[in-house]
Amino acid sequence: MYRLMWHFLSMLTIVPFIIFLISIVLLITKNKIDKKIWRILCFTPLIISIIHFIVYYLPNDFIIKRYLYMYIYSVLILLLQFTYNKKKLFKISSIIFIILGFISYFRVFYRTIMDENFHNLYYYNYTDSFDKTISILKKEYVLNEHKKIDYDFLYNKYYPQIKKAEETKDEQLYYKTMYEFANNFKDGHFHFGIYFTNMDETIKRYEFVDEYDNKDYGFASVLLSDGNVVAIYVDENSDAYNQGLRDGMIITKKDNKNIKDVFDEIVLSEGYPVLEDEQLYKSFHLFSSGNDEISVSFIDEEGIEKTINVKTTDTDGTKPYDLYNRVNYYNQLETLYTKMLDDNTGYIYIKDETYDNFKGAIGYVFDDSSYLTKVVDEKLSELKQKGMTNLIIDLRPNSGGYYTESSAIASLFTDETYLGIKLEKNNSKLYDKLYVKGNGKYKDLKVMVLVSTETVSAGDCLVDMLSKMPNVQVMGFTSSNNSAQSIGGMIFLSGGTSVIEYPIYNTYDKDGNIYIDTDETGKANIKLDYKIELTQDNIKEIFYCDEDYDYLLNYAINMMD
User: Fold this and answer.
1) Residue 209 contacts residue 296 (beta carbons within 8 Å)
2) Same structural domain for residues 403 and 440?
3) How far apart are the two ends of the chain, measured CA to CA in Å?
4) What is the distance between the alpha carbons of residues 30 and 26, in angstroms, rounded to a whole number?
5) What is the per-residue pLDDT across 496-542, written as a single tens digit (0 to 9) for each?
6) 315 with 369, same domain?
7) Quick check: 42 and 78 in contact, CB under 8 A?
8) pLDDT per residue over 224-241, tens digit each?
9) Are 96 and 22 found together in one domain?
């Protein structure tokens, strides 16, 4: 019902504008319209906009931001009635309002298409909102079958907590439960978020996250590539250190529970699509929550299992995030930043695939972002003139954008033209076919692509396209995110301050298979040519290096040399 009303109200705003245009034409051609009718025509857009706002009101500025042009125009058009008897002023005003009107209603039409799967559950209570959310996702989430989502299991697991939150009016418990619910989908395009106009209010609503990382026992842990969990960041003034725990020692138990079983208790900030990567990140948090005093079992220097009791410290508990940031290096550079790393090796950082929002949107509509091919070509040409024979393409992090821009960049490194992906249109059997149109200018360069879990969406797409080229190899501590289905679904949950966003349109490879996204096994579909193994020999170098030292980049430079 809400969805039908949404389309009706949004598209109905086009109708008064068309009437208004007809009225202007009639007046300019000296055909008269009764003044009362003219005033009604001027007031109609405002009345419909008010209804639109009331029905879709949310206690944040989401609706205002999305439909601001429409609301402003509805007010401004009232001014036109005062020019009714002033011919010259009316003509000038009419032209201005026609231009403003086209801008306003084009944006309304665009937002209506983009928000086709928008659902406002603001007026529902917690339990009804949860029921409705499950029902919506069953119908619309595009990877239900691919990931084998078990909604009955999720409902039975989380509904009791939702009901408790409703009965106790516990907003934090509601947020926490929906947060954990969303993480089960293991999809880089599936998110739970809280939105307030006031940022301080938004941060306050995320207080429940502190429950997951509220302890520091004087050390952290990391999962090695051989499957062992070892200690790292052991503070020299901690109980753990004083009782013999050292960096690199294998940890076997927490509170007499096998350490591998503790992984199931960890809740991460998001559901990572690749299981191997998720396990690594969970290992960072094994000792960031628990009782004020816990027992820890580890293998000491003599190879004997030793159990100690340690108390929580007064430190800020940032160790898990320090570990995460070491394997997911965060560049602070502007996109398409380039430089020479040495006499032979060039470097380019690609932050996202939205280099120019306007040109990118046009390119997306017409399946042609060749403007970006030219921009990247110019930058790489400058590096080649300086002697570049090797190139490092850094996609850490890369937040995605337009897939057409991914293919535009990839086209520089191949001389072949081929079908890259097929994008489903509006849940139909029609597709946008995206081709890589190779020009081969840099196909002879030796290329290394650096990725992390934060390389997502169109960033994933770029990695996949490049990885298929014989002169390109991919390196990382982890694979890229492995999420590529097209976003578009949005559910504003009970109370209107939290939202779930999810993909609604399929993206396929040339053979008609789901493109990139992991299935229920969590196996990466974009493979690394070089995966940096974590071992007892190199973890100190990786995790104790200066914050501005980029271990992966330096490893890549040495390998290319």
Assistant:
1) no
2) yes
3) 62
4) 6
5) 889 999 999 899 999 999 999 999 999 999 999 999 999 999 999 99
6) no
7) yes
8) 999 999 999 999 999 999
9) yes
